[in-house]
Amino acid sequence: MKERIFQWIEALAASPHPGWWLFALAFAESSFFPIPPDVLLITLGMTDPKRAIWYGIVCTAGSVLGGAAGYTIGLYGGRPLLYRFFNQTKVAAVERLYDRYNAWATGIAGLTPIPYKVFTIGGGAFKIDFRIFMLASLGSRGLRFMAEGILLHFFGAAVKDFLFEWFNWLTLAVAVVGIAGFWVVHHVGRRAHRHAEENPEG
Q: Angle formed by the axes of helices 18-29 and 2-13, to 10°?
């Protein structure tokens, strides 16, 4: 199965318009398709490192717009649709993240190996603020795919094994740092606000 997937990806990369296929794959993966676009992005970046950053932009655009489509699917399909395609444990975990971080949970998902479509569909099903959802989606997916594009632009095929084997862990580490930073800013802000209320004169 893995060999067939790579053969299919190589065929897309060798097609006359690989950028359109990358956009379509990134769009589909954010709402219903199981294969991540990173595989095609890395293949294209290795083939033509000079265009790797452009491919990162194309992949980001497709993924963000696909996320909006997933949000719409969840908005009109609701929880029953989530439970039909994803197990109850995964849906409950996504809901807890949304309860805690609101639409910014989308940003966490966009940087991690967690299937992004669970969060995009969940965002609509749980009626998360769409503007924040799109902003978080753009930030996280842009960081992920643009980082891949930049690495491929400067290092080409030499960085292939790193991207395939370690990139998910690297982006997961970035997500953890981001969550920690959010927690620190949030709690420092709350303490400062509480201090100002308790000491209105100074």
A: 130
In the chain, the percentage of residues whose pLDDT exceeds 70 is 74
Q: Tokens in use for 156?
A: 């080409």
In a 10 Å sphere around its CB, with 0-12 CB exposed, 13-18 middle and 19+ buried, how is residue 3 labelled? exposed
pLDDT at 168: 59
Q: Check residue 103 and report its DSSP letter.
A: G
101, 136 in Cβ contact below 8 A? Answer: no
- Cα distance from N-terminal residue to C-terminal residue, the chain: 67
pTM above 0.85, yes or no: no
What is d(CA 132, CA 46) in angstroms, rounded to the nearest whole number?
Answer: 34
Q: Which two tokens stand for residue 36?
A: 């991540």
